[in-house]
Amino acid sequence: MSFFKNQFANVVEWQEFRDDMIFYKWSNREIKKGSRLIIRPGQDAIFFNNGKIEGVFRDDGEYDIESQIIPFLSTLKGFKFGFNSGMRVEVLFVNTKEFVVKWGTQNAINIPTLGLPGGMPIRANGTFNFKVHDYIALIDQIAGVKDQYFVEDVKIRITSILDQLLMKWITREGKDMFNLQANSFDISKGIQEDLDMQMIKSGITITGFTVMSFSYPKEIQDMITKNASHGMVSDVGRYQQISLTDGMASGKMSGGGAASDMAGMMMGMNIAGKMMNQMNQNQPAPPQDAQPPVQPNGGGQKKPNFCPNCGEKTGAANFCPNCGEKLI
């Protein structure tokens, strides 16, 4: 009799667990007397019947369903297993971890931009984070019709509306089309709020959203780079010098050998000459009312070698050493 009774017992557990699986539904089977529930770390087990949650169990471990689970079920706590009767109830196992997903625009998004009739084609990539938040909404919207749900299913839902949200938050408040990275925090925050409003209806909350980078078409990126270089050198002459240097370094200048060396020497002499002119221009001019310095000895008057009074040799003295006659 004991063997006959135990053959109906079963184990309720998450079978074929995968890291990218959000939930797994154990269903369409009767739970018999002697059955056991196994909850592993990072899992919650939800007993529900006819779409209504009977109980949620969060602590990992192994439990006897009859003695440890049924007493805590809301409407089934008085259920008694009979010899041939089992409990018809569904068990939903939910992955409680926070999922991190990479995203990227499949096609360029044409952002309306002044001067570009077709808009500015922009691509973007980054990550978003999410986790299951509301079990009632999850069962009502998704688990009621699906036996399992994957990260890829959430990613498809999010990327289907991501282009519109990127366009909305990039163009909002006049964002600088050529410096989107500087506004990436505000753009990311706005998109996260909108995505959360969309997904929370299904019991999933968006816990993070990040735009890692924006990318432009090559022609636009080259223009941005040149404009940045022009701004750094601040004048056309030096900008032309840098352009000439880049052309020689990249091999785009025709000719080689002596011709290339001569071009380099001429460019170097030209740059050196402009640097000298710039230095001379930067030197302060003397004040217009400056007077020439007063020179000693009467502004150039030569002292006599002999005293005009006594004829004594004077040397470099200002007065005669013999008679004291002033020599200047």
UniProtKB/TrEMBL annotation:
Record-annotated SPFH domain positions: 25-231
Pfam families: Band_7_1
InterPro entries per record: Band_7/SPFH_dom_sf, SPFH_YdjI
Record field: compositional bias (Pro residues): 284-295
Organism: Neobacillus novalis
Name of the protein: SPFH domain-containing protein
Location of region: Disordered: 278-303
Coiled coil: none
